[in-house]
Automatic annotation (TrEMBL), chain A:
InterPro entries: AAA+_ATPase, ABC_transporter-like_ATP-bd, ABC_transporter-like_CS, ABC_transpr_LolD-like, P-loop_NTPase. The keyword Nucleotide-binding applies. Residues 11-231 form the ABC transporter domain. Keywords: ATP-binding, Nucleotide-binding. GO terms for molecular function: ATP binding; ATP hydrolysis activity; transmembrane transporter activity. This is ABC transporter ATP-binding protein. One of its GO terms (cellular component) is plasma membrane. Gene3D superfamilies: P-loop containing nucleotide triphosphate hydrolases. The lineage of its organism: Bacteria, Bacillati, Actinomycetota, Actinomycetes, Kitasatosporales.
């Protein structure tokens, strides 16, 4: 799909269909994501970006079509295996935050490591590194209710990346950030993708953020618009 | 218009001390890394006009055994003119003229396919924005490079936002016409 690249995609969705009640959100969307690739997903509000991200990340099961991750059909995986895989291989940043309100920023980021078996001290040390990379060190003792929107967003990104996932799904991760903070976050994210080979699905309506990606797909009414050929 | 800003840019470069033409060209191209490089001929004619208008004067000529090189320095009047220009507000978009805008309007008037044009232009804009982002975030990028890439990125982004809104308006209009 991309410049004759023949390597197997890490993640491939084929002809995804999904409705929320009677509202169609995806109507045959297909997309491929390779290891180390940053893919920007843009499109109008309501075009199905978040729904696509949720289907790819195994959070929502599609009504039709397939999602294949590293050779296995995610959409057919039993719930227990699916949540295990999400924990070990995926990192997700939701469009509307979802940090745990009772925990500090540091403990929110350290939690996924501890769930994966790391000791508390080590988990907290690594969590602090990630908070620093995203420019929110110094706010590690704040709880989500005491953080600014942009601080919470960066803590959520740190939490998604701290376990070294193979794929990160980020839904508007810079929506609450000013341009310099957004640049810092995107530079760190792009660096991680390049260095660690993490695949990143990046939903954004901001073209300057999408410009950090290797390529862009646009959703229109639940389908992927055909790619334009640039002369 | 562009010769006016070249005048002031050269005056600005002369503000840090006397310089000859080649040196000014080189420093210009360093300070404005993504701009079209200044032609040496343009530097030379602009310097002569600055001298004619009393804003710069000849400092001296050296040859070093090689070809003769004339060094220029700014005058008091030149310094005043530079200060005036630097503080003067640039007129905010006094005329709305732009190639993309013109193409869309002409395409609508002539029954063309503005939506297809807008999609292709968006892809080209995004490709250029990816290039500029890579330039800006490359390790060791200097401040002049970062500032000029930022400037270009923000302007391309503004184009894109207008293009996205226009594409959506066209869809709505078409839907209304189809429904009627
Ligand atoms: N939980 C839900 N219940 C009912 N309808 C939903 C739900 N989530 C999404 N939808 C609908 O599905 C469609 C796609 O929504 P989705 O959230 O995927 O869009 P989006 O592209 O992410 O939009 P935005 O840019 O506003 O975040 C919309 O029409 C929306 O109203
Ligand atoms: Mg959304």
């Amino acid at each position: 799909m991309t410049n004759g690249d023949t390597t197997e995609p890490l993640l491939a969705a084929h002809q995804l269909v999904k409705a929320h009640g009677r509202t169609p959100a995806l109507r045959g969307a297909s997309v491929e994501l390779r290891a180390g690739e940053i893919l920007a997903v843009t499109g109008a509000s309501g075009s199905g970006k978040s729904t696509l991200l949720h289907c790819l990340a195994g959070i929502v099961r599609p009504d039709g079509g397939s999602v294949t991750y590293a050779g296995q059909r995610l959409d057919r995986l039993p719930e227990k295996r699916l949540s295990e895989l999400r924990r070990t291989d995926f990192g997700v940043v939701f469009q509307f935050g979802q940090l745990i309100p009772e925990l500090t920023a540091l403990d929110n980021v350290a939690l996924p490591l501890m769930l994966a078996g790391a000791g508390r001290a080590e988990a907290r040390a690594r969590a602090a590194e990630w908070l620093e990379r995203f420019g929110v060190l110094g706010q590690e003792d704040l709880r989500p209710g005491e953080m600014s929107g942009g601080q919470a967003q960066r803590a959520a990104l740190a939490r998604a990346l701290v376990t070294g996932p193979k794929a990160v799904f980020a839904d508007e991760p810079t929506g609450a950030l000013d341009s310099l903070a957004g640049e810092q976050v995107m530079t760190a994210l792009a660096h991680t993708a390049r260095e660690a080979g993490t695949a990143v699905l990046l939903v954004t309506h901001d073209a300057q953020v999408a410009a950090y990606a290797d390529r862009e797909i646009q959703l229109r009414d639940g389908v992927v618009a055909p790619a334009e050929v640039t002369a | 218009m562009s010769s006016m800003s070249t005048r002031h840019i050269l005056l600005g470069l002369l503000a840090s001390g006397p310089s000859h033409g080649y040196d000014l060209k080189r420093r210009h191209d360093e300070r404005f890394p993504q701009a079209r490089p200044l032609a040496y001929g343009q530097v030379y004619t602009t310097l002569q006009r600055l001298v004619r208008d009393g804003l710069a004067e000849v400092e001296g000529t050296e040859s070093d055994g090689g070809p003769e090189r004339t060094a220029y320095r700014t005058t008091e009047e030149g310094t005043r003119e530079l200060t005036r220009w630097a503080a003067q507000i640039a007129p905010p978009a006094p005329f709305v003229t732009n190639e993309i805008f013109a193409k869309v309007v002409v395409s609508i008037l002539s029954g063309g396919d503005p939506a297809a044009y807008l999609r292709a232009q968006r892809a080209a804009h995004m490709a250029r924005m990816r290039e500029l982002t890579a330039v800006k975030t490359a390790p060791g990028a200097d401040l002049a490079t970062v500032l000029s890439a930022d400037y270009a990125l923000n302007h391309l982004d503004a184009d894109l936002r207008w293009m996205t809104t226009t594409a959506a308006r066209l869809t709505t209009l078409t839907a209304e016409v189809d429904a009627a």
